[in-house]
Amino acid sequence: MIDVTKSFILYAQCAISYDGRAKSELQQGNYIIMHKSDGSIMIHGGTLTTPLNYQPPGAILKKIENILISTRKNETLTIRIYDIKHYYQINEWSTHKIAIQYTEDDLREQIIKNIDKYFTNIAEIHKEFQTPFGPVDLLIIEREDAFHNVVELKRKHANISACTQVERYVRYFTECKIKCQGYIMCPSISKGALNYTKSHDIKFIGVDFEK
Amino acid sequence: MIDVTKSFILYAQCAISYDGRAKSELQQGNYIIMHKSDGSIMIHGGTLTTPLNYQPPGAILKKIENILISTRKNETLTIRIYDIKHYYQINEWSTHKIAIQYTEDDLREQIIKNIDKYFTNIAEIHKEFQTPFGPVDLLIIEREDAFHNVVELKRKHANISACTQVERYVRYFTECKIKCQGYIMCPSISKGALNYTKSHDIKFIGVDFEK
DNA sequence: CCATAGATCTCGCTG
DNA sequence: CAGCGAGGTCTATGG
Question: Does A199 touch chain B (CB under 8 A)?
């Protein structure tokens, strides 16, 4: 009845065990099992957005009597089926991608477009400027003294780890004898992070998405 | 036919738009829509583990003619249905929780059990020791001089942000005039992070889960 | 309620 | 392939 080579939705009384990156047991109950043509498989319970168990794309599904086994590298997901309540094979399932607006990239482009609002005397603008400690979201180098403005962007909310991120880059430039200033530019910031900026010489600039 | 007060699986030709934390459009196609009793709703395409669109628990679903609308705070998900291919109402869906082993917690307990392997002269052991910059995973205070060993744990892999995390705590204790040493203890570490530990006086100790 | 950090994170990108 | 970082992250936990 179940065709493991196809996409399907299964509602069944079953118990699940997983062994691989971690190890888990899910007691017997009624769960939804979703299988896709890329090999991914998810077990959903009656609450939450995220699946209880899953395997990512690339897994291979097999069926031995009443047991479904999904394997991938060193990971194994085992589904013991006791009672099938519903089965539906999915045909012509679309694989379109979603288009998202208002990403961190969009925010950066907007800031660059209006760069004169925030910085003056600009010689160079770099996106994702590579350092040994990771890429700087936005680097603005000034004329003459080559002062470096090191900007960490967050699409929405900055927390304390955004502060230490920009600090890391500032310390790198300082160690290279380059004069610089760290910035956080985003729509909002946590109270703890704002305190951190004030006591660690990081400038916070609030920016919002243009409609 | 569709009862928005119940849990259900729907396979339909539809188009989806979302507005809230970001903004997205998903072109018309055949998608699986899963709705749970906690209000969460997911739209799945034919590939990937993660849903294309979703609303987390607490969202409220309504139906106006052939349009499903899920709202939550300032977020709206709109599903325009053109053709229902399959509908199944889910009854008696289990909400059991999953039991996972080999978590960061398990690793910490294992290290504490074998603490004499790593540290000597121990006076106190603290889990999740609170500092203004966040909680220290494991804090081991020595006798007499009250030297603080500040340990950051990762269940699997440490990267550079784990380094700055432990640095943040070390700096806090140093500012409090407490002598300390930062550690990263985990099964593996990235090359960049390892370099960082060497140049920033952090000690890396490799630990693995006992079988 | 906000803030923080883990996760079998997933996913995409870059080297 | 690894490594790094974003994400409408989600989710659990603590203040």
Answer: no
Tens digit of each residue's pLDDT (9 = 90 or more) over A169-195 = 998 899 899 999 999 999 999 998 999
Q: Does domain B7-90 have CATH number 3.40.50.970?
A: no
Facing residue for A161 by CB, picked from B27, B98, B161: B161
The rounded distance, in Å, linking the Cα atoms of A207 and B34 is 36
Topology adopted by domain A104-206: Trna Endonuclease; Chain: A, domain 1 (3.40.1350)
* Residue-range domain boundaries for chain B: 7-90, 104-206
As a whole number of angstroms, the distance between CA A67 and CA A4 comes to 11
Fold identical between B7-90 and B104-206? no
Distances in whole angstroms, Cα of residue A167 to Cα of each of A127, B24, B129, B161, B165: 18, 33, 24, 12, 12
Q: Are the Cβ atoms of A102 and B23 closer than 8 angstroms? A: yes
pTM: 0.91
pLDDT tens by residue, B179-203: 999 999 998 888 888 888 988 899 9
Q: Which residue is nearest to nucleotide C10 (CA to C1')?
A: B50
Two structure tokens written together for B168: 């943040």
A 34-73 → B contacts, CB under 8 A: 34, 36-38, 40, 42, 44-49, 51-57
Which of A45, A90, A98 comes nearest B93 by C-beta? A45
